[in-house]
Amino acid sequence: MTWHVLGAGSLGSVWAARLHRAGVPVKLILRDPQRLASYRQVGAITLVEHDHATRYAIPADSVDSDTPIQRLLLACKAYDAANAIKHVAHRLQPGAEVILLQNGLGSQDEVAALLPQCRCVFASSTEGAFREVGWRVVFAGQGHTWLGDPADETPPGWLADLQQSGIAHTWSTDIVSRLWRKLALNCAINPLTVLHGCRNGELETHRGEVDGLCAELIELLTACGQPSAAADLREDVWRVIQATATNYSSMYQDVAAKRRTEISYLLGYACNAGSKAGLTLPRLQAIHHRLQAHLGSCGLPQH
Ligand SMILES: NC(=O)C1=CN([C@@H]2O[C@H](COP(=O)(O)OP(=O)(O)OC[C@H]3O[C@@H](n4cnc5c(N)ncnc54)[C@H](OP(=O)(O)O)[C@@H]3O)[C@@H](O)[C@H]2O)C=CC1
Ligand SMILES: CC(C)(CO)C(=O)C(=O)O
After folding, report:
1. What domain count does the chain have?
2. Taking 90 as the threshold, does the pLDDT of residue 182 lie above it?
3. 136 is a domain residue
4. Which positions fall inside the Ketopantoate reductase N-terminal domain (predicted)?
5. What is the ipTM of this complex?
6. In ligand 1, which atom is closest to the CA atom of 29?
7. Which of 16, 165, 177, 218 is the most buried (most CB within 10 A)?
8. Residues 85 and 149 in one domain
9. For residues 111 and 88, is the Cβ–Cβ distance under 8 A?
């Protein structure tokens, strides 16, 4: 069965290239005929791993094609996910499986609401990839991907394709909790690195702010029925800060490159969930507002 990959950016390309080279049928779906023409001119995705570049001539079509889709990897940013899926929804067969690679929370439910006839599998990944130029992508960090379906704990048969392709993964029966935990880590670290203009490790000099956010995130996770995502959060945040001390967070990198951030699916989602639960979370609200103002001053969307 063919894997269709909608969103041939950083992570989508890394997935597509590994599946393709393992002999698993893959097709890229590009956003419009112009992007398809650009891809066809080059004819391949170039994947750079350990400074070694390899071309993978993966077949592609655009969203305008009408071939049916039974398995789809949605690899757009969280803010593009629902809009992107609308363009291919009519091609998805009853019972089709859609794997959602988005970080944060909120986009998964937006997409699932549009696809009542499909099985939506949520993913949370610690892999790292970035687009160098054009159709050339650097696979910067080996990581792990957790996959799960909140509506059905049965592992899908296609996990064997991931195994065959060397995509490190685990089927998770608590994927929503994992997504919450990653969201909390991102909320405690990423906005502060943007506002202080620093690497993750330099947050050591802003201990009070990090700890204050952790305390409110623990309150939020607990109120939202996510006690295991709340357990030892502060310790985990400091462990991640130390382990990634010399790195710039993904949000820092987005702002530095003048790319839109996923703020609405991270801090925005956390603040909304807090309001819905009737919580007062002054530190999270304040950092959300400071970050929005900062994004505005950089000419970037505040949502
Ligand atoms: N990159 C990473 O290291 C990691 C990313 N993630 C998460 O994975 C998700 C994807 O991130 P990433 O791969 O970095 O994102 P990129 O910006 O690199 O890629 C997104 C891709 O989506 C495509 N796209 C957007 N809208 C549409 C549309 N309507 N139709 C078709 N294609 C569309 C873009 O197309 P075009 O090329 O035409 O602009 C682009 O190729 C994010 O939620 C991110 O947080 C999680 C862990 C690590
Ligand atoms: C390294 C870490 C955990 C920091 O929040 C991250 O995931 C990111 O930069 O987005």
Report:
1. 2
2. yes
3. yes
4. 3-150
5. 0.98
6. 31
7. 16
8. yes
9. no
Which strands form 3-6's sheet, in the order they lie side by side? 60-62, 26-30, 3-6, 69-74, 92-100, 119-125, 145-148, 169-171
Domain boundary among 111, 145, 173: 173
Question: What is the domain range of residue 265?
Answer: 177-297
Which of these three, 112, 138, 173, is where a domain ends? 173
Ligand 1 probe mutation, 48, 77, 124, most atoms within 8 A of CB? 77
The predicted model gives 145-170 an average pLDDT of 98
Q: Is the dihedral of CA 110, 113, 116, 119 positive or negative?
A: positive
CATH number at residue 34: 3.40.50.720
Which H or E element spans position 171? strand 169-171
pLDDT at position 34: 97
- Cβ of 145 below 6 Å from ligand 2: no
The values of phi and psi at residue 120, to 5°, are: -100, 120
Share of the chain above pLDDT 90, in %: 99
The reply to whether 190 and 146 lie within a common domain is: no
Ligand 2 centroid from CA 193, angstroms: 10
What atom in ligand 2 is closest to the CA of residue 240? 3
Same structural domain for residues 79 and 168?
yes
Are residues 273 and 154 part of one domain?
Answer: no
Answer yes or no: is pLDDT of 141 > 90.
no
In DSSP terms, which residues pair with 99 in a beta bridge? 73, 121
How far apart are alpha carbons 168 and 119 in whole angstroms?
A: 22
Query: Which atom from ligand 1 is nearest to the alpha carbon of 30?
Result: 31
pTM more than 0.95: yes
